[in-house]
């Protein structure tokens, strides 16, 4: 397993290696899908948060190269704020949800472009190195309002996406309450709150940088990898 | 060799099956204590890392759900918070109409595997256990199926009772599976009916991701998954791996 060396000032001192990511939690993601949400294969918009798991083999630190699988031209890069859980979070009340966080970091949820979102193959999102996180965990107290953080994505130094957490469909508190109604989040778990669409695309040989105000910068060089 | 993880008298121990003096089944802790099965708290036998699960990996089950031929195995991922051990309880929300068990062969990886051929696959297995991977179909939605509210619920994946060493299972493709609800046989299948067998799954998965020691593959369930109600005792059984017991409980226990 790639070791994730993430300095952290408050407990937990170590990430658990469990990463959940939220899809379609950004208004732009809905705008991109448009009327398609009401037609097959979806038939209706989702009621519960749309979540998936980024397994441990995907974890990488800032600066680690992300392998672009042989035969794949471009990858999608979903830049998200990541919540780092500080204490067991089960059935949280919206009003007090933030109290369960240790802090925040940046999650770069990399995937091979895939549609539809009905039952995608995990080959699209579960590749080695496909989830850089970092650059460090910023303590919760250092961020006054996580629902209003600007996010910028640069590819080879050029600004390619400018967005922010103010455009989330479920606010961070609401998301934590809905997720922990049926699954407990444990200390060191990461919950990525959702990225804007369309996702910027990168190729092998390019360098991605994600910036979130108050959190820092997450750098990922994309390199040619094996199949 | 069969090894369980149990909690007893303030600590967590490894335990092996051992008959009690009166002939009943019991466990022996590594420190020598001999205890009845119900005198210990059973934990999942492995501290699982990545949990990989298969949907529709038995031909008859796929037919039951009207699925046609697969281009590749239907795989999804789960978090460790879903796991509980033998003799635990699983909550059935009062509002749901269809919650069912799924008796599955669980494969625990023992060696790092990347780009492994099917011929070399089983050498990467540490052992096997039984999984009962509950689903609540009321919550099924058409986004990233099966969505986590259906398949990633607290305490809804029972794992155990033991980790059975791979050397004790000559061929994971020759095991009968059975589920009993309140003593009545409700599900019966055989691992030889898997669409993608255990070596094939390790070959497929390791072709695009690194498998590591402690990763667990839940290999899918045969036909016969039926609804369970509060109070039901569900026992999943697999040849050579033992019997995995679980009880369905209601919201009240959780203050809901």
Please write out the topology.
The complex is a heterodimer of chains A (227) and B (256).
Chain A: E1 19-23, H1 27-33, E2 50-54, E3 59-60, E4 66-68, E5 75-85, E6 101-111, E7 131-139, E8 150-155, E9 158-164, H2 172-179, E10 190-192, E11 201-202, E12 207-212, E13 216-224
Parallel strand pairs in A: 1-10, 3-7, 4-13
Antiparallel strand pairs in A: 1-2, 5-6, 5-10, 5-11, 6-7, 8-9, 8-12, 12-13
Chain B: E1 2-8, E2 11-19, E3 25-29, E4 34-36, E5 41-43, E6 51-55, H1 59-64, E7 74-78, E8 83-84, E9 88-91, E10 99-100, E11 103-109, H2 118-121, E12 125-133, E13 135-136, H3 148-151, E14 157-165, E15 176-181, E16 184-190, H4 198-206, E17 216-218, E18 233-238, E19 242-249
Parallel strand pairs in B: 6-17, 8-14, 9-19
Antiparallel strand pairs in B: 1-2, 1-5, 1-14, 2-3, 3-4, 6-7, 10-13, 11-12, 11-17, 12-14, 15-16, 15-18, 18-19
Question: Can you walk me through this structure?
Answer:
The complex is a heterodimer of chains A (227) and B (256). Chain A is mainly β. Helix content of chain A is 7%, strand content 35%. Chain A has a single domain, classed as Fumarylacetoacetase-like, C-terminal domain (Fumarylacetoacetate hydrolase, domain 2). Chain A contains 2 helices and 13 strands; from the N terminus they run βαββββββββαββββ. In chain A, a hairpin with a 3-residue loop joins strand 12 and strand 13. Chain B has 256 residues and is mainly beta. Chain B has 2 domains: 43 residues, SH3 type barrels, CATH 2.30.30; 211 residues, Fumarylacetoacetate hydrolase, domain 2. In chain B, strands 1, 2, 3, 4, 5, 6, 7, 8, 11, 12, 14 and 17 form a 12-stranded mixed beta sheet that branches. In chain B, strand 1 and strand 2 form a beta hairpin. The radius of gyration of chain B is 18 Å and the shape is globular. At the A-B interface, strand 2 of A face strand 7 of B.
What are its keywords?
heterodimer; A: 227 residues; mainly beta; Fumarylacetoacetate hydrolase, domain 2; eight-stranded mixed sheet; five-stranded mixed sheet; 2 helices; 13 strands; globular; disordered N terminus; B: 256 residues; SH3 type barrels; twelve-stranded mixed sheet; 4 helices; 19 strands; 9% helix; 40% strand
């Amino acid at each position: 397993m790639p070791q994730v060396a993430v300095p952290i000032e408050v407990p937990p001192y170590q990430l658990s290696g469990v990463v959940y990511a939220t899809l379609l939690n950004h208004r732009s993601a809905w705008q991109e899908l448009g009327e398609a949400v009401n037609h097959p294969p979806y038939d209706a918009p989702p009621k519960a948060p749309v979540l998936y798991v980024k397994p441990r083999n995907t974890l990488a630190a800032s600066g680690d190269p992300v392998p672009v699988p042989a035969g794949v031209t471009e990858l999608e890069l979903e830049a998200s704020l990541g919540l780092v859980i500080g204490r067991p979070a089960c059935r949280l009340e919206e009003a007090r949800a933030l109290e369960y966080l240790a802090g925040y970091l940046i999650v770069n949820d990399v995937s091979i472009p895939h549609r539809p979102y009905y039952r995608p193959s995990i080959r699209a999102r579960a590749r080695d190195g496909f989830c850089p996180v970092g650059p460090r965990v910023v303590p919760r107290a250092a961020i006054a309002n996580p629902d209003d953080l600007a996010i910028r994505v640069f590819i080879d130094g050029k600004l390619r996406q400018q967005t922010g957490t103010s455009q989330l469909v479920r606010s961070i508190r609401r998301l934590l309450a809905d997720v922990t109604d049926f699954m407990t989040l444990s200390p060191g778990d990461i919950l990525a709150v959702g990225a804007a669409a369309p996702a910027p695309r990168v190729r092998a040989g390019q360098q991605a940088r994600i910036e979130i105000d108050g959190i820092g910068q997450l750098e990922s060089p994309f390199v040619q990898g094996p199949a | 060799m069969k090894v369980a993880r149990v909690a007893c008298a303030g600590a967590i121990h490894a335990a092996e099956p051992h008959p009690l003096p009166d002939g009943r089944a019991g466990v022996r802790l590594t420190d020598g204590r001999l205890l009845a099965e119900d005198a210990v708290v059973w934990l999942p036998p492995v501290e699982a890392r990545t949990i990989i699960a298969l949907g529709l990996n038995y031909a008859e089950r796929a037919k039951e759900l009207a699925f046609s031929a697969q281009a590749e195995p239907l795989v999804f991922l789960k978090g460790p918070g879903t796991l509980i051990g033998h003799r635990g309880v699983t909550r059935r929300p009062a509002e749901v109409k269809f919650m069912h068990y799924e008796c599955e062969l669980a494969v625990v990886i023992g060696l790092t595997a990347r780009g492994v051929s099917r011929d070399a696959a089983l050498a990467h297995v540490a052992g096997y256990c039984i999984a009962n991977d509950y689903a609540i179909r009321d919550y099924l939605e058409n986004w990233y199926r099966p969505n986590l509210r259906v398949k990633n619920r607290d305490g809804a994946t029972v794992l155990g009772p033991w980790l059975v060493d791979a050397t004790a299972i000559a061929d994971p493709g020759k095991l009968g599976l059975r589920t009993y609800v309140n003593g009545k046989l409700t599900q019966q299948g055989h691992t030889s009916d898997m669409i993608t067998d255990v070596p094939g799954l390790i070959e497929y998965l390791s072709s695009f991701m690194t498998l590591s020691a402690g990763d667990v593959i839940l290999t899918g369930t045969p036909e016969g998954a039926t609804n369970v109600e509060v109070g039901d005792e569900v026992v999943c059984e697999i040849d050579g791996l033992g019997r995995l017991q679980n009880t369905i409980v209601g919201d009240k226990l959780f203050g809901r």
